[in-house]
Amino acid sequence: MQRSWLWSLRYSLQMRDSGRNEPTGLWSLILAAGGSRRLGMPKQLLRFRSRSLLSHTIVAAEAVTPGQVLVVLGAHALKLRLLLRRYHPSVYTITNSDWAEGMAGSLGIGLSVLPARAGAALLLVCDQPGVGAKSLRRLVHVWQNHPGQAAAAQYTGQVGVPVVLPRRLWPKASQLSGDVGARSFLREGVGVLGIVPMPEAAFDVDTVRDRARLYVRDFRR
Q1: What CATH number is given to the structural domain containing 195?
Q2: Which of 10, 45, 87, 188 is least surrounded, with the fewest CB atoms within 10 Å of its CB?
Q3: Which among 105, 36, 32 has a CA at the least distance from the CA of 73?
Q4: Using one digit for the tens of pLDDT, what is the confidence trace for 149-169?
Q5: Strand partners, 163
Q6: What angle do CA 166, 122, 50 make, to 5 degrees?
Q7: Mean pLDDT in the chain?
Q8: What tens digit of pLDDT does each residue of 37-53 get?
Q9: Structural domain boundaries enclosing 116
Q10: Is 93 a domain residue?
């Protein structure tokens, strides 16, 4: 079932890309498959500034890659599909049935179905409410200056998501396993990186305490 759906989506994206003479450039890949175990409820559906966290991330992604956004679902996929169908009908989705094995699988599946002429992927997660369109534009601008290199956000003394990965790095990223995301991949060294200071990315929503901070004006601190 998973393999059939994956190939169906891949075919849909490739057909969308067919007939064009120019590359499709940058795609946004939003990893939203997690089960939110420590929070006890789907973090993707938490409300932030009148919309869900997942919607907040999609709106930011659409601002920099309009019409080229893929969301990887897993836990709570049915609820999230209903939300996307209502508020974001143009967004592509795929479900990682093995989401419980960790983020790496979702990353690999997402990269594998992007169009053949996509030059890079903007990797995003849906639990960084401080990251908006302005943050992503700064990151993409740095990447565009050196499109063969990765560009990553820097906060709390390290690099992490959001990050732009050029296609040449996708095979290595797809070899990750377990609950390992882009941050671990970047720590291993992927050549020269474009670094974008992004303190607003430091706060992510993992616990009940984090949820409470969503409603505090200075949550970024």
Answers
A1: 3.90.550.10
A2: 188
A3: 32
A4: 999 999 998 899 999 999 999
A5: 123, 152
A6: 175
A7: 83
A8: 777 788 899 988 889 99
A9: 2-213
A10: yes
